[in-house]
UniProtKB/TrEMBL annotation:
Pfam families: Acetyltransf_7. SUPFAM superfamilies: Acyl-CoA N-acyltransferases (Nat). InterPro entries: Acyl_CoA_acyltransferase (IPR016181), GNAT_dom (IPR000182). It comes from Lactococcus protaetiae. The lineage of its organism: Bacteria, Bacillati, Bacillota, Bacilli, Lactobacillales. Signal peptide: none annotated. Keywords: Transferase. GO terms for molecular function: acyltransferase activity, transferring groups other than amino-acyl groups. It comes from the Bacteria. This is GNAT family N-acetyltransferase. Residues 5-139 form the N-acetyltransferase domain.
Amino acid sequence: MQSETDMKSVEREMMELKLIAEHKQDFLPLLALADSPKFIKNYLERGELYVFEDKAVALVTKEEDGSYEIQNFAVAVSFQGRGFGKIFMLELCRKYSGQTLLVRTDEYTAKFYEKCGFTAFKRVKNYFPEKYGERIFDKSRELIDNIYLKVELT
């Protein structure tokens, strides 16, 4: 009989990070959990789209300075808060080993990235109200400041 640790190891090995080259728009419903569709259009085709078990997505772009930026990271609502996002992020970080990964997010989601090893290095005050031209809420929390985080992957 397999131990719980062995079973988790097997489950983890079965989870697969897939690069999506075509029909990226098919994943708009998941991507829209993390950003407005009008903004997703600005980066959808220029980035690498990864899907994790068809329950999570990440879109990563290569920036001019050679770093990579996570433009979008979303987990299906029914899988949030269960460790799925962290496993996905660890797999994504493994994919970009040897690189610098950046992300810009709200002050609430920044805590998730910090748990994944990212460090905050910049805060832009009133970013969300100014960018979207209206008050933006996520799970009844108003989004105001934009937090920049990064991780140097070895």
